[in-house]
Amino acid sequence: MEGLQSALADHGMLILFLLALIEGPLVVLAATALAQMGAADIRIVWAVAVLADLAGDMLLYAFGRCAPGLLPPRLRPQLVRQKAVALFRQRGSQLLLAAKLTHFAGLPTLISAGFGRMSLLPFLVWTLIGTVLKVSIIILIGWHFWRAIGAGDMTEAVTVLIVLCVCCALVFAVMQVRRWI
């Protein structure tokens, strides 16, 4: 935590952007803790986290879009691409929201969106919606968790973690019922 605080003091929000680009949720939680202690402005942390997340999404989308062109024609997976194109035309918004809200599915889904030639504007709109939701939830949970830790209220801290687990389970259940995953 002190390392991030020192880096923010030395390099400003650029370091937060770069770190959030590499590993968003953990860095955002740490930056939220610093904001809770008064070492950063939570609104700026939120904005930088959203921008970094979108930049990362765009890089993965661009990779998925361009990478197959780098392969020799005989190695290009045409059948897989046709399936990906059809899938993202039918359920691109659902797939992107599910991927954004379930951190582990983000990388392959974002690359697949580019590979499947999802149109850029819908990709940006749905990833922006998912990013705003994800970053807001992480900051909200982190803010309350670190406030409870700072106040020495372990009951509230544990309650925040339990509420987080219940919310994750509910989101997962809804996604399964709606066949988003």
UniProtKB/TrEMBL annotation:
The keyword Nucleotidyltransferase does not apply. It is a multi-pass membrane protein. The chain crosses the membrane at residues 12-32, 44-64, 95-116, 123-146, 158-177. Its main location: membrane. The keyword Membrane applies. InterPro entries: DedA_domain. It is found in: Cell membrane. Keywords: Cell membrane, Membrane, Transmembrane, Transmembrane helix. It comes from the Bacteria. This is DedA family protein. It comes from Fuscovulum ytuae.
